[in-house]
Design a protein that fits this description.
three-stranded antiparallel β-sheet; two-stranded antiparallel ribbon; binds alpha-D-glucopyranose
Protein backbone atom coordinates (compact mmCIF):
# COMPACT_ATOMS: atom_id res chain seq x y z
CA UNK A 1 0.00 0.00 0.00
CA UNK A 2 2.99 2.38 -0.27
CA UNK A 3 1.23 4.26 -3.01
CA UNK A 4 -1.82 4.66 -0.76
CA UNK A 5 0.28 6.06 2.06
CA UNK A 6 1.78 8.62 -0.32
CA UNK A 7 -1.73 9.55 -1.42
CA UNK A 8 -2.82 9.83 2.20
CA UNK A 9 -0.01 12.29 2.90
CA UNK A 10 -0.88 14.26 -0.21
CA UNK A 11 -4.54 14.52 0.92
CA UNK A 12 -3.54 15.90 4.32
CA UNK A 13 -1.19 18.37 2.66
CA UNK A 14 -3.83 19.45 0.14
CA UNK A 15 -6.44 19.95 2.87
CA UNK A 16 -4.00 21.92 5.06
CA UNK A 17 -5.08 25.55 5.23
CA UNK A 18 -2.00 26.67 7.16
CA UNK A 19 -2.20 25.53 10.79
CA UNK A 20 -5.46 23.64 10.49
CA UNK A 21 -6.84 21.03 8.13
CA UNK A 22 -10.31 21.00 6.57
CA UNK A 23 -12.10 17.61 6.65
CA UNK A 24 -12.82 17.98 2.92
CA UNK A 25 -12.27 21.08 0.79
CA UNK A 26 -15.77 21.26 -0.68
CA UNK A 27 -18.24 19.85 1.83
CA UNK A 28 -16.51 20.88 5.08
CA UNK A 29 -14.31 23.94 4.44
CA UNK A 30 -13.52 24.86 8.09
CA UNK A 31 -11.80 23.30 11.10
CA UNK A 32 -13.79 20.54 12.82
CA UNK A 33 -12.97 19.50 16.38
CA UNK A 34 -12.61 15.73 16.42
CA UNK A 35 -11.53 15.62 12.79
CA UNK A 36 -8.48 17.70 13.76
CA UNK A 37 -7.61 15.36 16.60
CA UNK A 38 -7.52 12.36 14.25
CA UNK A 39 -5.75 14.36 11.58
CA UNK A 40 -2.96 15.07 14.07
CA UNK A 41 -2.41 11.32 14.39
CA UNK A 42 -1.84 11.14 10.64
CA UNK A 43 0.54 14.11 10.56
CA UNK A 44 2.50 12.60 13.44
CA UNK A 45 3.63 9.78 11.15
CA UNK A 46 5.62 12.19 8.95
CA UNK A 47 5.64 15.73 10.43
CA UNK A 48 5.60 15.89 14.24
CA UNK A 49 5.54 19.66 14.54
CA UNK A 50 2.58 19.95 12.18
CA UNK A 51 0.67 17.35 14.23
CA UNK A 52 0.97 19.47 17.36
CA UNK A 53 0.04 22.64 15.49
CA UNK A 54 -3.25 21.01 14.41
CA UNK A 55 -4.41 20.59 18.01
CA UNK A 56 -2.92 23.88 19.15
CA UNK A 57 -4.92 25.74 16.52
CA UNK A 58 -8.13 24.06 17.72
CA UNK A 59 -7.38 25.16 21.28
CA UNK A 60 -6.75 28.72 20.15
CA UNK A 61 -10.51 28.82 19.60
CA UNK A 62 -11.28 27.60 23.15
CA UNK A 63 -13.76 29.81 25.03
CA UNK A 64 -12.84 31.26 28.44
CA UNK A 65 -15.05 28.72 30.28
CA UNK A 66 -13.14 25.76 28.80
CA UNK A 67 -15.60 24.94 26.01
CA UNK A 68 -14.01 23.85 22.70
CA UNK A 69 -16.33 24.36 19.70
CA UNK A 70 -17.18 21.78 17.09
CA UNK A 71 -16.39 24.14 14.18
CA UNK A 72 -13.91 27.01 13.96
CA UNK A 73 -14.65 29.36 11.07
CA UNK A 74 -11.12 30.64 10.46
CA UNK A 75 -12.15 32.13 7.12
CA UNK A 76 -15.32 32.77 5.16
CA UNK A 77 -16.59 30.09 2.79
CA UNK A 78 -19.98 29.96 1.11
CA UNK A 79 -19.77 26.21 0.59
CA UNK A 80 -21.22 25.21 3.98
CA UNK A 81 -24.50 25.84 5.78
CA UNK A 82 -25.04 26.88 8.60
CA UNK A 83 -22.11 29.29 8.54
CA UNK A 84 -20.82 31.69 11.22
CA UNK A 85 -23.64 34.19 10.78
CA UNK A 86 -26.25 31.56 11.65
CA UNK A 87 -24.39 30.43 14.77
CA UNK A 88 -23.70 34.02 15.82
CA UNK A 89 -21.47 33.00 18.73
CA UNK A 90 -19.95 36.46 19.04
CA UNK A 91 -16.45 34.97 19.31
CA UNK A 92 -13.21 35.76 17.48
CA UNK A 93 -12.50 33.60 15.55
CA UNK A 94 -16.18 32.82 14.89
CA UNK A 95 -17.19 29.35 16.09
CA UNK A 96 -20.21 27.14 16.53
CA UNK A 97 -21.81 26.95 19.99
CA UNK A 98 -21.77 23.18 20.49
CA UNK A 99 -18.87 20.80 21.02
CA UNK A 100 -17.86 17.37 19.64
CA UNK A 101 -16.55 14.03 20.99
CA UNK A 102 -13.52 14.78 23.21
CA UNK A 103 -11.04 12.48 21.58
CA UNK A 104 -8.22 15.06 21.73
CA UNK A 105 -6.72 14.08 25.11
CA UNK A 106 -6.21 10.53 23.87
CA UNK A 107 -4.47 11.81 20.77
CA UNK A 108 -2.32 14.31 22.69
CA UNK A 109 -1.13 11.49 24.93
CA UNK A 110 -0.17 9.55 21.79
CA UNK A 111 1.66 12.56 20.34
CA UNK A 112 3.50 13.05 23.62
CA UNK A 113 4.55 9.42 23.84
CA UNK A 114 5.68 9.46 20.24
CA UNK A 115 7.83 12.56 20.97
CA UNK A 116 9.26 10.81 24.04
CA UNK A 117 10.08 7.70 22.01
CA UNK A 118 11.90 9.88 19.49
CA UNK A 119 13.96 11.48 22.27
CA UNK A 120 12.27 14.86 21.78
CA UNK A 121 10.69 15.32 25.21
CA UNK A 122 12.53 18.58 25.83
CA UNK A 123 11.33 20.12 22.60
CA UNK A 124 7.67 19.28 23.34
CA UNK A 125 7.41 19.55 27.15
CA UNK A 126 6.12 23.15 27.25
CA UNK A 127 3.68 22.49 24.42
CA UNK A 128 2.36 19.38 26.20
CA UNK A 129 1.83 21.37 29.38
CA UNK A 130 -0.09 24.10 27.57
CA UNK A 131 -2.32 21.54 25.85
CA UNK A 132 -2.82 19.73 29.14
CA UNK A 133 -4.23 22.93 30.68
CA UNK A 134 -6.61 23.41 27.77
CA UNK A 135 -7.76 19.79 27.85
CA UNK A 136 -8.30 19.86 31.61
CA UNK A 137 -10.45 22.98 31.31
CA UNK A 138 -12.47 21.39 28.49
CA UNK A 139 -13.08 18.18 30.44
CA UNK A 140 -14.12 20.26 33.45
CA UNK A 141 -16.62 22.02 31.18
CA UNK A 142 -18.05 18.59 30.29
CA UNK A 143 -18.37 17.66 33.96
CA UNK A 144 -20.05 20.98 34.77
CA UNK A 145 -22.35 21.47 31.76
CA UNK A 146 -22.94 18.19 29.98
CA UNK A 147 -23.92 15.86 32.80
CA UNK A 148 -27.01 17.48 34.32
CA UNK A 149 -28.22 14.19 35.80
CA UNK A 150 -24.85 13.50 37.47
CA UNK A 151 -24.64 10.03 35.89
CA UNK A 152 -20.97 10.37 34.91
CA UNK A 153 -21.98 10.40 31.22
CA UNK A 154 -22.04 13.03 28.46
CA UNK A 155 -25.40 14.53 27.57
CA UNK A 156 -25.46 15.83 24.01
CA UNK A 157 -27.52 18.95 23.36
CA UNK A 158 -27.42 18.53 19.58
CA UNK A 159 -27.05 15.50 17.27
CA UNK A 160 -24.05 17.25 15.67
CA UNK A 161 -22.39 17.28 19.06
CA UNK A 162 -22.19 13.48 19.00
CA UNK A 163 -20.37 13.47 15.64
CA UNK A 164 -22.93 10.84 14.49
CA UNK A 165 -25.32 13.35 13.01
CA UNK A 166 -28.26 11.24 11.81
CA UNK A 167 -27.89 8.12 13.92
CA UNK A 168 -31.33 6.54 14.52
CA UNK A 169 -30.50 7.01 18.20
CA UNK A 170 -31.70 10.61 17.82
CA UNK A 171 -35.02 9.84 16.09
CA UNK A 172 -37.28 9.42 19.12
CA UNK A 173 -35.62 12.15 21.23
CA UNK A 174 -35.81 14.48 18.20
CA UNK A 175 -39.59 14.26 18.07
CA UNK A 176 -39.90 16.80 20.86
CA UNK A 177 -38.06 19.46 18.85
CA UNK A 178 -40.48 22.05 17.47
CA UNK A 179 -39.54 22.70 13.83
CA UNK A 180 -42.50 24.90 12.95
CA UNK A 181 -40.53 28.17 13.12
CA UNK A 182 -37.32 27.11 11.41
CA UNK A 183 -38.08 29.12 8.26
CA UNK A 184 -36.58 28.73 4.81
CA UNK A 185 -32.96 27.85 4.26
CA UNK A 186 -30.78 26.36 1.55
CA UNK A 187 -28.71 23.32 2.37
CA UNK A 188 -25.27 23.16 0.79
CA UNK A 189 -24.44 19.52 1.56
CA UNK A 190 -26.99 18.15 -0.92
CA UNK A 191 -25.53 20.47 -3.58
CA UNK A 192 -22.21 18.63 -3.25
CA UNK A 193 -23.40 15.09 -2.59
CA UNK A 194 -26.17 12.65 -3.45
CA UNK A 195 -29.10 13.31 -1.08
CA UNK A 196 -29.44 9.53 -0.55
CA UNK A 197 -26.21 9.62 1.43
CA UNK A 198 -27.25 12.54 3.61
CA UNK A 199 -29.63 13.32 6.49
CA UNK A 200 -33.27 14.04 5.58
CA UNK A 201 -35.04 17.42 5.50
CA UNK A 202 -36.79 16.68 8.80
CA UNK A 203 -33.44 15.92 10.43
CA UNK A 204 -31.98 19.16 9.07
CA UNK A 205 -34.97 21.13 10.36
CA UNK A 206 -34.28 19.69 13.80
CA UNK A 207 -30.58 20.55 13.60
CA UNK A 208 -31.45 24.13 12.73
CA UNK A 209 -34.16 24.47 15.36
CA UNK A 210 -31.59 23.49 17.99
CA UNK A 211 -29.06 26.00 16.62
CA UNK A 212 -31.74 28.69 16.79
CA UNK A 213 -32.56 27.66 20.37
CA UNK A 214 -28.91 27.89 21.47
CA UNK A 215 -28.40 31.18 19.70
CA UNK A 216 -31.51 32.65 21.36
CA UNK A 217 -30.01 31.56 24.70
CA UNK A 218 -26.80 33.43 23.80
CA UNK A 219 -24.92 30.11 23.88
CA UNK A 220 -25.17 30.24 27.67
CA UNK A 221 -24.32 26.58 28.31
CA UNK A 222 -25.77 26.29 31.84
CA UNK A 223 -29.05 27.79 30.61
CA UNK A 224 -29.11 25.45 27.60
CA UNK A 225 -28.52 22.44 29.85
CA UNK A 226 -31.60 23.41 31.87
CA UNK A 227 -34.08 23.77 29.03
CA UNK A 228 -32.77 22.37 25.75
CA UNK A 229 -35.45 20.36 23.89
CA UNK A 230 -32.88 17.66 23.05
CA UNK A 231 -30.88 16.08 25.89
CA UNK A 232 -29.51 12.63 25.17
CA UNK A 233 -26.84 10.79 27.12
CA UNK A 234 -24.71 9.72 24.16
CA UNK A 235 -22.98 6.37 24.43
CA UNK A 236 -20.27 7.46 21.98
CA UNK A 237 -19.26 10.67 23.76
CA UNK A 238 -19.57 9.06 27.18
CA UNK A 239 -17.21 6.21 26.29
CA UNK A 240 -14.84 8.60 24.53
CA UNK A 241 -14.70 10.99 27.49
CA UNK A 242 -14.08 8.17 29.95
CA UNK A 243 -11.20 6.99 27.79
CA UNK A 244 -9.94 10.55 27.33
CA UNK A 245 -9.94 11.11 31.09
CA UNK A 246 -7.81 8.00 31.59
CA UNK A 247 -5.35 9.38 29.04
CA UNK A 248 -5.45 12.84 30.60
CA UNK A 249 -4.66 11.29 33.98
CA UNK A 250 -1.68 9.48 32.45
CA UNK A 251 -0.53 12.79 30.98
CA UNK A 252 -0.93 14.50 34.36
CA UNK A 253 1.31 11.87 35.90
CA UNK A 254 3.87 12.15 33.10
CA UNK A 255 3.98 15.92 33.45
CA UNK A 256 4.03 15.92 37.25
CA UNK A 257 0.60 17.58 37.52
CA UNK A 258 -2.14 16.96 40.03
CA UNK A 259 -4.58 14.30 38.80
CA UNK A 260 -7.10 14.11 41.67
CA UNK A 261 -9.87 15.97 39.88
CA UNK A 262 -9.48 13.73 36.80
CA UNK A 263 -9.45 10.58 38.93
CA UNK A 264 -12.74 11.71 40.49
CA UNK A 265 -14.33 12.10 37.03
CA UNK A 266 -13.20 8.60 36.10
CA UNK A 267 -14.63 7.15 39.31
CA UNK A 268 -17.93 8.95 38.70
CA UNK A 269 -18.14 7.58 35.15
CA UNK A 270 -17.26 4.05 36.20
CA UNK A 271 -20.01 4.17 38.83
CA UNK A 272 -22.61 5.74 36.53
CA UNK A 273 -22.01 4.44 33.03
CA UNK A 274 -24.42 1.53 33.52
CA UNK A 275 -27.10 4.14 32.90
CA UNK A 276 -26.26 3.42 29.24
CA UNK A 277 -26.64 -0.36 29.42
CA UNK A 278 -29.88 -1.66 27.90
CA UNK A 279 -30.52 -4.92 29.73
CA UNK A 280 -33.28 -6.02 27.39
CA UNK A 281 -31.38 -5.56 24.10
CA UNK A 282 -28.14 -6.40 25.90
CA UNK A 283 -26.20 -3.52 24.40
CA UNK A 284 -24.58 -0.23 25.32
CA UNK A 285 -26.61 2.58 23.77
CA UNK A 286 -27.75 6.16 24.25
CA UNK A 287 -30.56 7.20 26.59
CA UNK A 288 -32.92 10.17 26.37
CA UNK A 289 -32.51 12.12 29.59
CA UNK A 290 -35.90 13.75 29.27
CA UNK A 291 -37.92 10.53 29.00
CA UNK A 292 -35.44 8.09 30.53
CA UNK A 293 -35.86 5.89 27.45
CA UNK A 294 -32.96 3.88 26.11
CA UNK A 295 -32.55 3.79 22.29
CA UNK A 296 -32.03 0.01 22.16
CA UNK A 297 -29.87 0.34 19.03
CA UNK A 298 -26.65 -1.56 18.45
CA UNK A 299 -24.47 1.02 16.69
CA UNK A 300 -20.74 1.18 16.12
CA UNK A 301 -20.56 3.46 19.18
CA UNK A 302 -21.86 0.58 21.32
CA UNK A 303 -18.53 -1.18 20.76
CA UNK A 304 -16.56 1.69 22.30
CA UNK A 305 -16.98 0.12 25.74
CA UNK A 306 -13.66 -1.68 25.21
CA UNK A 307 -11.94 1.57 24.24
CA UNK A 308 -13.41 3.18 27.38
CA UNK A 309 -11.57 0.56 29.42
CA UNK A 310 -14.70 -0.99 30.91
CA UNK A 311 -13.93 -4.57 31.84
CA UNK A 312 -17.24 -6.12 32.76
CA UNK A 313 -17.46 -9.83 31.82
CA UNK A 314 -21.21 -9.87 31.23
CA UNK A 315 -21.55 -6.83 29.02
CA UNK A 316 -18.28 -7.73 27.24
CA UNK A 317 -19.67 -11.14 26.39
CA UNK A 318 -22.88 -9.63 25.03
CA UNK A 319 -20.98 -7.08 22.94
CA UNK A 320 -18.63 -9.72 21.55
CA UNK A 321 -21.64 -11.81 20.55
CA UNK A 322 -23.09 -8.79 18.71
CA UNK A 323 -19.72 -8.26 17.06
CA UNK A 324 -19.53 -11.84 15.82
CA UNK A 325 -23.12 -11.86 14.59
CA UNK A 326 -22.60 -8.61 12.65
CA UNK A 327 -19.21 -9.77 11.35
CA UNK A 328 -21.01 -12.72 9.75
CA UNK A 329 -23.44 -10.40 7.99
CA UNK A 330 -21.18 -7.76 6.42
CA UNK A 331 -18.08 -7.82 4.28
CA UNK A 332 -16.54 -4.84 6.11
CA UNK A 333 -16.69 -4.14 9.82
CA UNK A 334 -17.95 -2.07 11.67
CA UNK A 335 -21.28 -0.77 10.30
CA UNK A 336 -22.63 2.31 12.08
CA UNK A 337 -25.96 0.52 12.55
CA UNK A 338 -26.72 -3.15 13.12
CA UNK A 339 -27.47 -4.64 9.66
CA UNK A 340 -30.23 -6.71 11.24
CA UNK A 341 -32.07 -3.51 12.17
CA UNK A 342 -34.91 -2.61 9.75
CA UNK A 343 -33.58 0.97 9.62
CA UNK A 344 -30.17 -0.11 8.27
CA UNK A 345 -29.21 1.74 5.05
CA UNK A 346 -25.84 0.88 3.60
CA UNK A 347 -24.92 4.34 2.29
CA UNK A 348 -26.92 6.79 4.43
CA UNK A 349 -24.35 8.41 6.65
CA UNK A 350 -24.65 7.17 10.27
CA UNK A 351 -27.37 4.61 9.50
CA UNK A 352 -25.12 1.94 8.10
CA UNK A 353 -21.79 3.08 6.62
CA UNK A 354 -18.40 2.27 8.14
CA UNK A 355 -16.34 5.20 9.46
CA UNK A 356 -12.55 4.78 9.66
CA UNK A 357 -12.16 6.89 12.80
CA UNK A 358 -14.72 4.92 14.74
CA UNK A 359 -13.02 1.73 13.58
CA UNK A 360 -9.70 3.04 14.85
CA UNK A 361 -11.16 3.51 18.34
CA UNK A 362 -13.01 0.18 18.32
CA UNK A 363 -9.91 -1.65 17.05
CA UNK A 364 -7.70 -0.16 19.73
CA UNK A 365 -10.20 -0.97 22.44
CA UNK A 366 -10.58 -4.58 21.32
CA UNK A 367 -6.80 -5.05 21.11
CA UNK A 368 -6.26 -3.61 24.57
CA UNK A 369 -8.93 -5.91 25.97
CA UNK A 370 -7.11 -8.90 24.45
CA UNK A 371 -9.53 -9.59 21.58
CA UNK A 372 -6.74 -9.57 19.01
CA UNK A 373 -8.40 -11.41 16.12
CA UNK A 374 -11.44 -9.15 16.19
CA UNK A 375 -9.21 -6.07 16.48
CA UNK A 376 -7.23 -7.20 13.45
CA UNK A 377 -10.42 -7.79 11.47
CA UNK A 378 -11.43 -4.18 12.13
CA UNK A 379 -8.02 -2.85 11.12
CA UNK A 380 -7.65 -4.95 7.98
CA UNK A 381 -11.22 -4.23 6.84
CA UNK A 382 -10.55 -0.49 7.21
CA UNK A 383 -7.36 -0.68 5.17
CA UNK A 384 -9.05 -2.88 2.54
CA UNK A 385 -11.86 -0.34 2.12
CA UNK A 386 -9.35 2.44 1.58
CA UNK A 387 -7.19 0.37 -0.76
CA UNK A 388 -10.12 -0.81 -2.89
CA UNK A 389 -12.31 2.29 -2.88
CA UNK A 390 -10.31 5.38 -1.90
CA UNK A 391 -10.24 7.91 0.93
CA UNK A 392 -13.99 8.38 1.29
CA UNK A 393 -15.80 9.93 4.20
CA UNK A 394 -17.49 6.58 4.90
CA UNK A 395 -18.11 3.25 3.16
CA UNK A 396 -20.85 0.72 2.61
CA UNK A 397 -20.22 -2.27 4.89
CA UNK A 398 -21.78 -4.55 2.27
CA UNK A 399 -20.02 -3.72 -0.99
CA UNK A 400 -17.35 -1.23 0.12
CA UNK A 401 -18.66 1.60 -2.08
CA UNK A 402 -17.78 5.13 -0.97
CA UNK A 403 -20.33 7.30 0.83
CA UNK A 404 -20.07 11.08 1.23
CA UNK A 405 -17.06 13.17 0.25
CA UNK A 406 -13.80 11.85 -1.22
CA UNK A 407 -10.21 12.82 -0.32
CA UNK A 408 -11.28 12.94 3.28
CA UNK A 409 -8.67 14.06 5.82
CA UNK A 410 -9.51 11.78 8.72
CA UNK A 411 -9.72 8.71 6.49
CA UNK A 412 -6.23 9.55 5.18
CA UNK A 413 -5.01 10.07 8.75
CA UNK A 414 -6.27 6.68 9.89
CA UNK A 415 -4.60 4.96 6.92
CA UNK A 416 -1.30 6.52 8.02
CA UNK A 417 -1.79 5.81 11.72
CA UNK A 418 -2.73 2.19 11.00
CA UNK A 419 0.18 1.32 8.71
CA UNK A 420 1.31 -0.98 11.46
CA UNK A 421 -0.92 -2.66 14.06
CA UNK A 422 -1.09 -1.02 17.50
C1 LIG B 1 -20.12 15.28 9.72
C2 LIG B 1 -19.83 14.11 10.65
C3 LIG B 1 -18.99 14.59 11.80
C4 LIG B 1 -17.71 15.23 11.27
C5 LIG B 1 -18.03 16.32 10.23
C6 LIG B 1 -16.77 16.80 9.51
O1 LIG B 1 -20.89 16.24 10.34
O2 LIG B 1 -21.00 13.50 11.07
O3 LIG B 1 -18.67 13.52 12.66
O4 LIG B 1 -16.95 15.77 12.30
O5 LIG B 1 -18.91 15.83 9.26
O6 LIG B 1 -16.09 15.72 8.92
Amino acid sequence: MTQDFNTARAILEANDRGGYTVPNGRVYPFQWNWDSAFVALGFDTFDRDRAWIEIESLFRAQWPGGFVPHIVFWQEDEGYFPGPGVWDSGRTPPTSGITQPPVAATIVRKLWESALAAGQADAYQARAEALFDGLLAWHRWFADHRDPGGHGVVVAMHPWETGRDNSPEWDAPGESIDVSNVGDYVRRDTGHLDAKMRPTKLEYDRYLALVQFGRAAGWDHPAIARSNPFQVADVGMSMILLRANRDLLALAQALGRDGDEIAAWIARAEAGIHYLWDGERRTWCSRDLRTGRSSGYVTSASFLSFYAGLRDPQSDEAMLAHFDRIAGRVRYMVPSLDPDDPGFQMIRYWRGPVWAVVNWMIGHGLAEAGHRARAERVRSDTLALIRDTGFYEAFSPLDGSGSGGDDFSWTAAIALAWQTPG
